[in-house]
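Teaching soon. Invent one.


***
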Amino acid sequence: LDAEGTLNTNLKAVILPAAHAELTHVEAVAPTCFEEGNIEYWYCEACGYAWLDAEGTLNTNLKAVILPAAHAELTHVEAVAPTCFEEGNIEYWTCEACGYAWLDAEGTLNTNLKAVILPAAHAELTHVAAVAPTCTEQGNIEYWYCEACGYAWLDAEGVLSTNLLAVILPEAGHVAGEPAVENGYLVTRCEVCGEILESIEIQPGIPDLGIEPGYYADGALCAIDNDTATIKLVSKMDATFVDFRVLFPVVSADKYYVTSEDAAVIQQIVNGEVVTVDGTNETGTLWKYFGANVEDGYNQVFHIVITDKETGIDYTYTVNVEFAHGPACTGVEPGWSANAALTGFVEGAENVINVVSKSGMSEVDFRLLGMAKGSYAEILSGDANVIQWVESENAYVNVTDDAPELETNTQWKYFKSFKADGSEQSYEIAVYFIDGSYEVFTVNVTFVD
């Protein structure tokens, strides 16, 4: 062991076994989402070897002690559909430790928390076309509408917001037109939609329509329906011509005049002749005569217009002329003096007839007659004043016991009523037929001032 050779040893004793310097202890470090960790180990700085124990007996290596970086257990987030006002998301997995997200449970398909968000959005917007308002109904401008939330937009993309009140166009309201006559009423209609805005009866206080057989006394009234302004006039049996005039019984020609577009106009002349009226003498008179010829048909229809001179209002009446060529009705004629007009048979009352005087008349004459020649034997009355028109004298005379020849058994017997006996009078007149049967008619006479 010395140079002098004094300290003896041997070759085994002089050998120093191989040994690591002091081992460095490395504590265990848990890995994070993005940094590696390691298990506990011991490390020789001289040679770089590592052991699992402090004595250095359990050898390892520096790779084996490394714990790779890893995310904790990923949290599954289910897909949520977005609503009109709240965001939704696709399905994803997230790490609560670091906040990263993945599209798969294994964490291989990386994403981010912005990419998984589905923005709030309205469902498909329903297009509502523009509708123009009417007189009574609202309209709307064009807009788009979300049925889910009830919101509205002015564009299909849902960018220009509005509301369901703002898109409404209020109803326009009616536009009143000029009043016009319709079926006896002065009617104001809307110029836009035609709805009736006002309807005023245009015949207040005016008696119902009347009619007179004309100068030839060749027909008689058989029916009047004032609700429909329709008149039925029947000729005498086998007559070939009927003349008549339509009138309001209580007003003057100063207020009304009569025209017709389809009835032939005639005018009585003082000397008893009847001539066709031309453009020079067809005056606007309330007492205009119209004529019908059988050659134009047994049944004819005419429209007579009575016009109010002050208002321009027209009253249109329909006259049905029937030429009798077989059994016909029993009718009534105002008499020779032409001082009254018939206003129709009383509805719901059998054989009841109304006769109205012209304004200011003190007496009224009329005759009840049968229209079918040879069917009637006699016309009698126990309470009406009987008169007889005597053509040769151009006047009428009262029938008396002194003149029995005037009260003939005729179907054309005249009767007379005097205002002095009362403003309203009623008579019963019996019509006897050749077969022995008879009918009793009630004639109501009204005098008007």
